[in-house]
UniProtKB/TrEMBL annotation:
Molecular-function annotations in GO: ATP binding; ATP hydrolysis activity; copper ion binding; P-type divalent copper transporter activity; P-type monovalent copper transporter activity
Record's keyword annotation contains Ion transport: yes
Keyword field: ATP-binding, Cell membrane, Copper, Copper transport, Ion transport, Membrane, Metal-binding, Nucleotide-binding, Translocase, Transmembrane, Transmembrane helix, Transport
GO CC term (a single one): plasma membrane
Domain of life: Bacteria
Chief subcellular location: membrane
Protein name (record): P-type Cu(+) transporter
Organism: Halanaerobium kushneri
Compartments where found: Cell membrane
Lineage: Bacteria, Bacillati, Bacillota, Clostridia, Halanaerobiales
Length: 288
């Protein structure tokens, strides 16, 4: 039988936007001393708009940069890809056929257009391959830059902007007021991560974390003795959600994240992590 206090608080939680998939995790919320947040789609809206398109060669005008990038991104479901394709559609840019398309997890996409090898990639990918990033390409702010390569030569760039969720500011402050460490995990570049971290006043952040490494980060924090709640929305976050002491999925996120998590934030509001901690503690106290 389910103790009455648990039943009541589960109902209370449901009314407050918390879907409890694992009751033990819920009751353990009082032990949380670190909340780890994914950036894109969790602390930020995860909806990218195109801010600027730039060309670095006379062989391409800006529209052609957008055209090639959007053509490559058609097959990707990444929020970055959605932003680029949407811009091409708004501008009525015709999308081209892509052969041999592949996703380079956490780095970008690759494919052939008219038999030419094209890539749309992160700044981290350029660094890894010793391709120089043009001065001032990486702008300070909530921006993510995607670089277009033709036969591994840099030809252009698209700058996208995502917005920090309004309630992220409040949740960070209130968690810290409770003495809880608030850290961020992101595949995005160091500069963007640093901006978001400073904006929100995070305890710490980890940037350019590849999809396979997110779960490892959780393990590292646990090894330091922390009781870790991980909050995320993406397919990439699922292993980390599973590894965390408490896995929390954003409701608007991917099914994989929701199916892996202990708790789902139905309203997709990071602020509801606070309710989880309050209700979870309450339930535990009443059961004693
Ligand atoms: P996160 O889920 O934290 O946003 P990802 O691991 O999905 O990070 O992606 C990390 C980085 O890889 C992105 O910030 C971006 O620079 C690059 N990237 C991922 N997918 C794409 C894509 N479809 N097109 C271009 N760049 C991409
Ligand atoms: Mg995300």
């Amino acid at each position: 039988a389910i103790p009455l206090v648990v039943a009541v608080s589960t109902t209370l939680s449901a009314k407050n936007g918390l879907l409890i998939r694992n009751r033990t995790a819920f009751e353990n919320a009082r032990k949380i001393d670190t909340v780890l947040f994914d950036k894109t789609g969790t602390l930020t809206e995860g909806e990218f708009g195109v801010e600027a398109v730039e060309t670095f060669t006379d062989d391409y005008n800006k529209e052609e940069i957008l055209q090639k990038a959007a053509s490559l991104e058609q097959e990707s479901e990444h929020p970055i890809a959605n932003g680029i394709v949407k811009k091409a559609k708004t501008d009525e840019v015709e999308l081209l056929k892509v052969d041999d398309f592949e996703i380079m997890k956490g780095k970008g996409v690759i494919g052939k257009i008219n038999n030419t090898d094209m890539k749309a990639v992160s700044p981290g990918y350029l660094e890894e391959n010793n391709i120089e990033i043009p001065n001032d390409a990486l702008k300070e702010g909530p921006f993510t830059e995607v670089f277009l390569l033709e036969n591994d030569k840099l030809v252009g760039m698209i700058r996208l902007a995502d917005q920090i969720r309004e309630s992220s500011y409040e949740v960070v402050k209130k968690l810290k007021d409770k003495g809880i460490k608030v850290k961020m995990l992101t595949g995005d570049n160091q500069k963007t991560a640093e901006y978001v971290s400073n904006e929100l006043g995070l305890t710490d952040f980890f940037a350019e974390v590849l999809p396979d490494q997110k779960q490892q980060k959780v393990e590292e924090l646990q090894a330091e003795g922390d009781f870790v709640a991980m909050t995320g929305d993406g397919v990439n976050d699922a292993p980390a959600l599973a590894k965390a002491d408490i896995g929390i999925a954003i409701g608007s996120g991917t099914d994989v994240a929701a199916e892996t998590a202990d708790i789902i934030l139905v309203e997709s509001d990071p602020l509801d992590v606070l309710k989880l901690i309050d209700f979870g503690s309450l339930t535990f106290k009443k059961m004693l």
